[in-house]
Amino acid sequence: MKINKLYLFLIVVALVAPSLVYPVFLMKLLCFALFACAFNLLLGFVGLLSFGHAAFLGTGGYITGYLMLETGITPELGILAGTLGAGLLGAIYGKLAVKREGIYFAMVTLALAQLAFFFYLQAPFTGGEDGLQGVPRGALFGLIDLSDNFAMYYFVLAIFIFGFWLIHRTVHSPFGQILKAIRENEPRAVSLGYNVNDYKWVAFIISSALAGLAGSTKTLVFQLASLTDVHWHMSGEVVLMTLLGGMGTIFGPLVGAGVVVSIQNLLSGGELGNYINIIMGVIFIICVLAFRSGLVGEFQKLMKKNFN
Amino acid sequence: MTCQTFASLGDVMATIFGLNLFALSGQLLVGLINGSFYALLSLGLAIIFGLLKIINFAQGAMYMLGAFFAWMALNYMGINYWWALILVPIAIGLLAILMERFLVRPIANEDHLYSLLLTFGIALVLQGAFTHIYGSSGLPYQIPAELKGGTKLPFMYLPNYRAWIIVSSLVVCFSTWWVIEKTKLGAYLRAGTENPQLMQGFGINVPLITTLTFGFGVALAGFAGVLAAPVYSVSPDMGSNILIVVFAIVVIGGMGSIGGAILTGLMMGVVEGLTKFFYPEASTTVIFLFMVIVLLVKPAGLFGKEA
To answer: Name one GO cellular component term (chain A) (predicted).
Structure first.
C-alpha cells in the first residue's frame, strides 16, 4: 500500500509541475527518464550492459521526424512508427549481441550503434550534420493541437507513464522473474531448461522499442532529430543516468535522469559549459568507486538499516 | 594525379586490369597504416584483458594522450620526435600504473563491467580536459626531418614516414608477441592468465605483474599515439573514433590470442583500404559489417576459443 501512495503522490506532482517549472525542461526530463528506464530493463534486470542504446533513441527520432515532415500523419502514428522501427532494429541488433556475453556484449552493441551512426550520417533522408529541423508536432488524433507546450506536456506524461508501467509489468511478470534469474545465475537458468539467449533477446527488443519511444517523443518535443541522439556520447549518458540513479531499481533511472539533465541545464550556457564532459566523467568515476548502488540504491540501504 | 611522372611501362601496367593500380596501391598503403594502429591498440587491449579480464575503455584516450604528449614535448620543452617516441610511452605507462594501482585495483573483485565504466569515465575526463584546453580542431605535428621525402616504387610513391609507421609498429607488435610466447617472462604472463592463484602459490608476485602488464598494454597505445601525431592531426577526439573500430576488431579476432589480435588489426586495416578503393561509401562501416558476419558465422571470433 505504501508504494501505491508514493505513485499517487508522484502523479499529482507531475500533473501540477508544468505550472511551476518550464514545461519543455520537464518534457526533456521525462523523455530521458523513459530512455534510462528502458536501458535499465537490460542492465538492471538482466545484467546486460548495452553501450549502444543511442542507436534506438536516434532511430525512433529519425523515423518519427521524417514521417511527420514528409507525410503529415498524426503524431501518435508517427510515434508508433518510430517505436516499431527502433524495436525492429533492436530485434536485429539484439539477435547478434546476445551471442556474446559480458564485456563483449558491451563492445558489440557499441560497434553496432556506430554502424547506425555512420548510416544516418550518410543516408539521404536524415539531413546529415544538420539533422531534421522544424519537425511539426501536429494534432493528436487530428484533434488536439500539440504546438501548445501544456498540451504537449500532458501527452508526453501519458507516454512516460505508459512506458514506465510497461517496464514495471515486465519486471514483475513471470518473464521478469526469469530475467532476474539469468542475471543472478545464468548457468543455473540454463540447467533449468530456459533458453537464456531468447529471453535476453526479447528483453533487448522491449528495451530498444521503449528507447525508440523516448526518441520519437523527444523529436516531437524539440521538433528536431539529429546526430547527437545516435552518437556514442548519448549511449554513455544513459549508462551514467542509470548508474547514478541506481541500476536495478525501479526509480533509479528516473532520479539519475533528473540529476543529469538538471546538471546539463544548469551548466549549459554558463561559464562551466565547457566542463560538462569532465564533470560527467568524474561522476562516472565516483559512482563506480564509491557508490555502485546509485542514489536510490543507497537510499534503500539506508532505510533498511535504520527502519528494520 | 602524378601518373605522368611515371615511366611508360608503369603507365601501361597501372591500368592493365582496367583498374587504377596506382590508386589501389595507395589505398592499400593507407589501409596498412591504419592496420598498424589497429594492431598496436588491439594488442594492448588483448594483453590487459588476458591478465586483468577487463577492457580498458581509456585505451583510445591514452592514444590521444600519446599524440598530445609528443606535441607538448616538442612545443613546450623542445624534445624532438625520436626522444618522444621513447619517453612518451614510458610516461603514459607510468600514468597507467598509477591508474591501475589507485582506480582499477580497488574494484578488481567487482563485476568487470564496473571497470569498463570506470575507464569510460577516465576517457571522458581526459577527452573533455584536452578539448577544453586545446579546442577540437586539431594541432599540426611535423614529420621528423630524417623521414621526410619518399621512395618511388613501380606502382606508387611511398612516403618514408608511412613506411616507418608500418615497419616500426610491426617490429613492436612482433617483439611483444615473441616476449609473451617465447620467453620466461611471457611464460609467467601466460600462466597468470590461466591461473593467477596457483602462480601466486609458486611465490610469484602476481599483483606486480598485473600492474606492469597494465602499464605496458597502455604504453603501447601511447607509442601508437606518438607514431600517429605526424600523419593525423593531434586532436582530442582522435582516440574515441579509433577505439570503437578497435573494439569491433577485438570482437572479430577474439582476445584469446596475442598473434590473433595483431593479425586481425592489420587485416582489418587492409580490408578498410580495399573498401575505400572499390566502394568508398562503405569505408567507415565495413569493419562493423565484418563484425556482424563474424558474429553470425563464428561468434567466438576468428582466433577465439568457444567458451
So the answer is: plasma membrane
